[in-house]
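quick one before i forget lol
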Amino acid sequence: MPPIVEARNVDFCYADGTQALRSLNLAFARGRRTALLGRNGAGKSTLFTLLNGLARPSRGEVRFAGEPVAYDRRALRELRRRVGVVFQHPDSQLFSASIREDISFGPLNLGLSKDEVRRRVEQALATVGLAELAERPTHALSYGEKKRACLAGVLAMEPEVLIFDEPAAGLDPPMTAQLLPLLDDLHAGGRTVIVATHDVDFAVAWADEICVLHAGALTFQGEVAKHEALCRALAELELGLPVVFELFGALRRRGLVRGEEPPRTRAELLARLDENIVDRSCA
């Protein structure tokens, strides 16, 4: 199957002359969870605006489901229905008086019936846990509630691809802890999920595939199992190494855990350590 969305030999230059993307070739497979890593200014947010049709490449092309993106009004409306982006700063995405009104905006613009709009809105509110706050003014929401309201507005469009730009930014630890299961639930519903993040530990624990951008170019793309190449790419860009990888390496050198492939989460590492302790006690 063709990638669900991709950039082919894409350049993008802002009006002030800033070159944000350089000959970028990056394809996202349908139905996968992809984490996009990179320093500030690497081009992650710019790429998302191109994938959603909010901007056009200076050179190259963006493709959706194997076909080049068209930029007439009808084609862009359809693309934005199928590729939803939740941006990092919620105030740039919320503009209606209440949560319910804001979430209703997209489905109403699709020309759906009132019953269908109501169904989508209620389902989106329940998914993000805002059903009890549906009538609250958007300006009265906490930062975390605003981010969830933005997500609900995107979910109400029922997109095939969900893109999150730094979803954990500005969230406290309890809210961040709720993020991973929510992303997993959204992916389990059949969606392709793409997340830009600075959190390498989250990326390794959650993603099927990791991509690393630097200065608008792709420096790494692969599954987490390619951990040695991933770690080299992260180290070269000083993005930090996953803590679980570092701990695994230290414990392995001391003979406390075994295996070549590192675990992806703290729970997996602890399970490996417990297994080795049990093995030693039985010897």
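fyi The first strand starts at residue 5 and ends at 13.
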